[in-house]
């Protein structure tokens, strides 16, 4: 093994795969399956109450259709019900808001996911703000973000939460460690900073973005590096501290297919642990959506 895994706890009893360079592969597909399986057992142990995730999709965007179908499939595997509302792209803003209001009022619906982005011309903020924190299983509304900042009960956004689950599962220490998050969106980067830095997790977090100078020097100090910029292959070996845990959130569609922000081949030789792309953070987003939906049912007094 050439890479140090000093920051990743040794688990000699596991069969974690390693890259050629010795980095532990943080396998999101596998952990997703484990979490969905565990969730199904919890649902069954609770007597299989009807807990329902409603998905809302406006328009005919093909990747969005694929994402929504994947969410419904995983909900079924977890023992959760799902309901899909497909809305024609010619609907008005008021019609979409009416549909979401109905789902909010519906006691048979516990989680609401509005697939983003909405087609051009729609105001997503006005739709999202209708969803109360308990049903906001995507964790993306202003109120959910406020609750995360204030450390109040609520749902954290699924992608950064998935990163946290990978760190936990693969024994990556966070307390007192240095973390760098590249990207400052409200969808990923900002909540990631909050989750890594919150009490109990206790990383010391730096937020990098497109105006950060000497990015490689900044990321090179990170024990935990989360790349969420959406710039294909921008994180190379020179950006990574030996032994660091590197989590790739970015997704770019290129002529070579879908690629992440992390140049896997060079980084895996330096990192202590790394997520593959695909099969890293993406599947974890869906697993966390299911966990949030189950948690929503508890918040709504269903179980
Ligand atoms: P945004 O475009 O909203 O944000 C990108 C962030 O990256 C911005 O803060 C931007 O800085 C920063 N950035 C852009 N270029 C650079 C650069 N060269 N150096 C440093 N920082 C840079 O994207 P999202 O946060 O919504 O998504 C990020 C990526 O994650 C995308 O590829 C998206 O597809 C993917 N994604 C993946 C998910 C998953 O499940 N794995 C789920 C959600 C998103 P600035 O603010 O200065 O412009």
Give your account of this protein's structure.
- The chain is α/β, with parallel strands linked by helices.
- Among the domains are: 47-134, Rossmann fold, CATH 3.40.50; 170-283, NAD(P)-binding Rossmann-like Domain (Rossmann fold), CATH 3.40.50.
- The chain is 36% helix and 15% strand.
- It is built from 10 helices and 11 strands.
- It has helices at residues 28-45, 62-77, 93-105, 124-128, 142-150, 158-169, 189-197, 215-219, 264-267, 281-299, and strands spanning 24-25, 52-58, 81-87, 111-114, 178-182, 204-208, 224-227, 245-248, 252-254, 257-259, 273-274.
- The longest helix has 19 residues, at 281-299.
- The site of NADPH dihydro-nicotinamide-adenine-dinucleotide phosphate has 26 residues, from helix 10.
Major β-sheet profile: 6 strands, parallel
**DSSP E strands, number:** 11
User: In percent, how much strand structure appears in the residues?
Assistant: 15-25%
| Helical residues, percent | 25-40%
CATH class category of one domain? Alpha Beta
CATH fold-level topology of one domain = Rossmann fold
The end-to-end span amounts to 47 Å
User: Helices and strands: which structural class?
Assistant: alpha/beta
Q: Tell me the name of the CATH homologous superfamily of one domain.
A: NAD(P)-binding Rossmann-like Domain
Q: Runs with pLDDT <50, length 5+? A: 1-6
Rounded to an integer in angstroms, the radius of gyration calculated over CA atoms is 19 Å
Q: How many DSSP H or I helices? A: 10
């Amino acid at each position: 093994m050439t890479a140090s895994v000093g920051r990743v706890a040794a688990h000699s009893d596991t069969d974690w795969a390693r890259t050629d360079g010795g980095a532990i592969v943080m396998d999101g597909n596998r952990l997703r399956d484990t979490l969905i399986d565990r969730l199904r057992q919890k649902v069954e142990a609770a007597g299989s109450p009807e807990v329902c995730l409603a998905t809302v999709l406006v328009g005919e965007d093909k990747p969005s259709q694929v994402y929504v179908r994947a969410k419904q499939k995983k909900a079924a595997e977890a023992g959760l019900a799902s309901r899909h509302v497909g809305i024609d792209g010619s609907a008005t803003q008021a019609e979409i808001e009416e549909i979401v209001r109905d789902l909010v009022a519906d006691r048979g619906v516990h989680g609401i996911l509005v697939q983003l982005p909405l087609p051009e011309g729609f105001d997503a903020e006005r739709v999202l703000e209708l969803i109360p924190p308990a049903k906001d299983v995507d964790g993306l509304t202003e109120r959910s973000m406020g609750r995360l900042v204030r450390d109040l009960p609520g749902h954290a956004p699924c992608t950064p939460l998935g990163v946290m689950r990978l760190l936990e599962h693969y024994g990556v220490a966070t307390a007192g460690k240095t973390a760098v998050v590249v990207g400052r969106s409200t969808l990923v980067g900002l909540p990631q900073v909050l989750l890594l830095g919150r009490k109990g997790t206790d990383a010391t977090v730096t937020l990098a973005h497109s105006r950060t100078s000497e990015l490689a020097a900044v990321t090179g100090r990170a024990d935990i590096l989360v790349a969420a910029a959406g710039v294909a292959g921008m994180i190379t070996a020179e950006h990574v501290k030996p032994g660091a845990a590197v989590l790739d959130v970015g997704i770019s569609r290129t002529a070579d297919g879908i690629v992440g922000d992390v140049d896997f081949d060079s980084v895996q030789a330096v990192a202590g642990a790394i997520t593959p792309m695909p099969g890293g953070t993406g599947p974890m987003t869906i697993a966390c959506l299911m966990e949030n939906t189950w948690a929503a049912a508890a918040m709504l007094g269903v179980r």
